[in-house]
Amino acid sequence: MNxxxxxxxxRRKILTHIKNNPGRHFxxxxxxxxxxxxxxxYHILKLxxxxxxxxxxxxxxxxxxxxxxxxxxxPKSLTPKQAEILRIITKHPGSTYMKIVDRCxxxxxxxxxxxxxxxxxxxxxxxxxxxxxxxxxxxxxxGSNGK
Length: 147
Known about the structure:
Blueprint: H1 3-20, E1 24-25, H2 26-33, H3 37-49, E2 53-58, E3 61-66, H4 80-91, E4 95-96, H5 97-104, H6 108-121, E5 124-129, E6 132-137
Antiparallel strand pairs: 1-3, 2-3, 4-6, 5-6
């Protein structure tokens, strides 16, 4: 097998992975496909040039998608901690801030940061009653003060 055939095989492998796992970031693709960083960088660049994939920044991460998803609405990806907070609120609607902090096992400041981001995207709703905050799934501002 010559170099060109090997390169095509590697690109096909990367493209298949991105089609099956849209929104993966570089480090995750690198880990899953067990390629060197330089090799993955080169082939991703070639796939982008060939308009087989495109990249979109999601905060810190550059995520890769198949070109077929170019017109799709790409949801904002959640961090593992944000996903955990959403699971807690789903299981325990109306949880208070301190109950969520206790269940997550992280600092109050870290949980506050993630909850603020979730509220900004409208994934959680915050109701304030007599100075106490209660958290629910849904849009901020619907039946609450949104703070």
